[in-house]
Amino acid sequence: MFDLVIRGGMLSTASEVFAADLGIVGGRIAQIGSGLGAGAREIDAEGKYVLPGGIDSHVHFAQPSGEGIDMADDFESGTRSALFGGNTTVLPFCLPEEGQSLREALKAYHAKAQGQCYTDVSFHLIVTDPSEAVLGQDLPALVADGYTSFKVFMTYEGLRLNDGQILATLDTARRTGALVMVHCENEDAIRYLIGRHEAEGDVAPRAHASTRPVAVEREATHRALSLAEVAEVPIVIVHVSNGEAMEEIGRARARGQKVIGETCPQYLMLTARDLEGMDWEGAKFVCSPPPRDEAAQAACWRGIETGVFDLFSSDHCPFRYADERGKLNPRGRTSFRHIPNGIPGVETRLPILFSEGVMKGRIDLPRFVALTSTNHARTYGLYPQKGTLAIGADADIAIWDPAHRRTIAHADLHDGSDYSPYEGLAVTGWPTTVILGGRVMVEDGALLGQKGAGQYRSRSIPGMAGPTPFRQETTG
Ligand code: URP
Ligand code: ZN
Ligand code: ZN
Ligand code: ZN
């Protein structure tokens, strides 16, 4: 007797599509096959796709910021929105505040997440202070405790690291087996361009994109790849926005480097012209790197189709638009450089790729599963407990109705922001039932699951997941 049987659906993993029933016991997948026995509960998935729950390995929730600016999502609203968008695991960042150690920051993030989550969560560590003590002691201890990925920034005052600091952080990754994600934009070049634009009085949101042109991202991408080559470590290039940065990834791979590439919906669906909206409305689209043009969008689609990109993440980094403590903060109104960077998108990531990618024939269903779930689990040490449909794996599942049509409207979404950058976009296909650890969390647009059902998940060393790490402990 199963706890739950999903009957008659079309299953897909990252490698194959097949018709089967799926039986769940104790929160894990217990059997996959035809004509399974009865379940205490049964779901009819006739005409639907049964996919591994989405894993969004790049989201920002409840991050502190200076200047009195509030992030629009905490762990409750952020994971609720993720869940409704077909996700069962998210990987937000842990950003230490000034003077705070990473261990103290993690304590604060665990406190913010505890009992609040609708999806499972795990944290990446943002390295802002690569001191000898941090690199030599703190980070190795944290990696041993299951925090196995770091992010470093080449831009943003207060966050950016110089080349020596990046190399030292990569070296810690080399010694510990952790994986480093890099935000590639040349801060000095950006500052130079900001100075020129402000001197000309060109301060509207559109200048955000003009001061972060492709060259700024391409140069930093090349440099990050070179530093990883020197340090002899794999590297993740996050939120790639254009073809020239993609070419850098291709060249590094051709030289034999292990590079993981990530892109996001904004680089497929938006352009810099979206930043030109009237009355500062362009602020809604301010994110870094900025959206580019149609040629860059086409290049990013090619990267999705041909394998330059392994990861399709949202980079959900939500601020409210019509809010003095969000995008329209009083300082933001004086210059684009004070508009908080980041846009919401955790709930629309999967429907956009499903509709624009699978339904329009650009990618097949296994590639969709790889880009949105399996590769995230593999890259960040959650596989095969997560990211696939296999016996013994967590029963984290999204059931998709490929015939469901809707027009994206923020009023129907579940995040804490007050707009969607994709308002008005018509999509075909939506995750109508979402199951976390065997529990039906969302069904036909209704929230059935409880806050707190989502758990913190410790991770293995990336790429080192054993064949059966199913006994990995979870802690609260
Ligand atoms: O504009 C963005 N992407 N904000 C989020 C922070 C980051 O760099 O990922
Ligand atoms: Zn970034
Ligand atoms: Zn200008
Ligand atoms: Zn980000």
TrEMBL record:
It comes from Aureimonas populi. Keywords: Hydrolase, Metal-binding. The keyword Hydrolase applies. It is an enzyme of class 3 (hydrolase). PANTHER family: COLLAPSIN RESPONSE MEDIATOR PROTEIN, HYDRANTOINASE/DIHYDROPYRIMIDINASE FAMILY MEMBER. Residues 456-476 are annotated as: Disordered. Its cofactor is Zn(2+). It comes from the Bacteria. It holds the Pfam family Amidohydro_1. Belongs to the metallo-dependent hydrolases superfamily. Hydantoinase/dihydropyrimidinase family. GO terms for molecular function: dihydropyrimidinase activity. Residues 49-440 form the Amidohydrolase-related domain. Its EC number is 3.5.2.2. This is Dihydropyrimidinase.
